[in-house]
Design brief:
The protein is mainly α. The chain contains four helices and no strands. It is elongated and about 50 Å long.
């Protein structure tokens, strides 16, 4: 068994475990995703994303 093949098997096993954990702990996984997204996305892009998702527009529509 070569080192590359061993690393590939280890990466696939880690991915499978991560998927199973994400399925069992969905709320924590979503919180983790949001945390990563908020760190990666700039402030102006976050505003655009909020508008696309319906953050401000939805509130303005409800107030009208």
């Amino acid at each position: 068994m070569s080192t590359g093949f061993g690393l590939l098997i280890l990466a696939q096993l880690a991915l499978a475990i991560f998927i199973i954990w994400g399925y069992m702990h969905e709320e924590r996984f979503v919180a983790f995703e949001n945390k990563i997204i908020s760190k990666l996305v700039s402030k102006s892009a976050r505003k655009k994303l909020r508008l696309i998702i319906g953050g401000k527009q939805k509130r303005e529509k409800d107030a009208a």
